[in-house]
Amino acid sequence: MRLLVPRGRRIVRRSMTCLCLTHSLTQTHSPFPSLHNNRNSLFQFFSGILRPSIRPFSANFNGGPTSAASSSAIMADFHADSVTYLTQREAAEIDETLMGPLGFSVDQLMELAGLSVAASISEVYKPTEHGRVLTICGPGNNGGDGLVAARHLHHFGYKPFVCYPKRTPKPLYSGLVTQLEALSIPFLSVEELPSDLSNDFDILVDAMFGFSFHGSPRPPFDDLIQRLVSLHDNDQIDKKRPVIVSVDIPSGWHVEEGDVDGTGIKPDMLVSLTAPKLGAKKFGGPHHFLGGRFVPPAIAEKYKLVLPPYPGTSMCVRIGKPPQVDISALRENYISPEFLEEQVEADPINQFRKWFDDAMAAGLKEPNAMALSTVGKDGKPSSRMVLLKGLDKDGFVWYTNYESRKARELSENPRASLLFYWDGLNRSVRVEGPVQKVSDEESEEYFHSRPRGSQIGAIVSKQSTVVPGRHVLYQEYKELEQKYADGSMIPRPNWGGYRLTPQLFEFWQGQKSRLHDRLQYTPHEINGQRLWKIERHTFQVKNFPNDSSSFGNCYSLLLDVKLCVSVNWA
Fold this sequence. Notes:
This protein is of the alpha+beta class. It is about 25% helix and about 20% strand.
């Protein structure tokens, strides 16, 4: 028997979090000049920051602090209209305070702000579909945020390009450019940019001007802004266009009044920093993110900041509800190598092992997870996820409670179907065949190879039965844990393994335009020897009843590309 997942090995999928800060001014003078001349005032200022009576920044809006248990409920009910929006002056004061009395440096803020932009992008736009990113950077701190974001996007698996036409001759900015050049990230001049940005890029990061900008954009930024605006022109409607991500405020917008005449950039994503600016109220795109969980309570109190609570340990949070999704429009255009008959193993067990090893090597979470489908004597199918625990020439093995619904259905109808799905590889495998219990010796050996906690859990978890509450499970678990604390052997309950002997395999590989590869193995005998026949399945023929009033005797060809073609044979 081959154990597929070594004990003690865990594969953990890391979740991406956003880390956000804001800044746009390089001045370090304090907004509270009297503090510099008065030690008592300075002490009182910092005491206000540290005083326990100040309510937490992440708070509910009925007056009390937000607990971790209730934060998700608050997020569900939190509306964009409830958020505090800052004036240009308030945003500048907060930045000056951060870089003055609170001790942040410009490069710290720039690093964290750029990371927040890159992380927010990765939350929505995956590099497999939106890999080519052009970051357009202005001469100020907003442009610095863009340079940092480009570096992080490179490490996140994107292919960034940078347009930085007006470089700032300061060591901070020169260092950021050097870092990008060391990663071989291309810098493009305005002249080198294509006239139609939609052909060469999937994401356009607008990092030209932040909330401190005044007046009208000068060349070449006026032209660059118009290129972004033109992507929404009517003549572009039938073309796939890149998405636009604006940093803190869309370039060219009035910081407080927004897109005044309606002719400005219309970003798909806005990453507000610290708190959204008043102009962000006019943002109508689908994705508005907020970063700035670092804000001290004193600042939150002073400016009466009302912001959505951050979930868990995340440093970014969506403002408003996610856009409504048309489920029928959800579609993945798979890109995979061809799966050809001449390349596959003659024995489907060997082919399965080959694909399973690929899933392990790709670091997919629980590649041995499979959907087990059974049907009882009432003819009603049921499915659930279980873990494959062994594979040999005789078939696939898993373990479960022998009093569960699946066990009952297998006793009534000892046939089942298994389905493995490996999303990261665009692959699935379906296996069908008869099922029987493994030997008691095999079940006993595996049961006692499990961690002792799992052995106790198997006794406590009487599958498919009604439990008054989770506390009952905990109580019984604790009692059994104490009972066997001396290390004595834990008896196996009515629990054991099943083995499915395969009679059909189907290997599926996703391809472009729904032209998927689907190879099916079925057994047949030649000269008394059991061999496997390999067939490519691309479509199914389905008969429809006659309708003499319309189409007559009609057959429908339902192809794997989800296209239904009707043919009239009359």
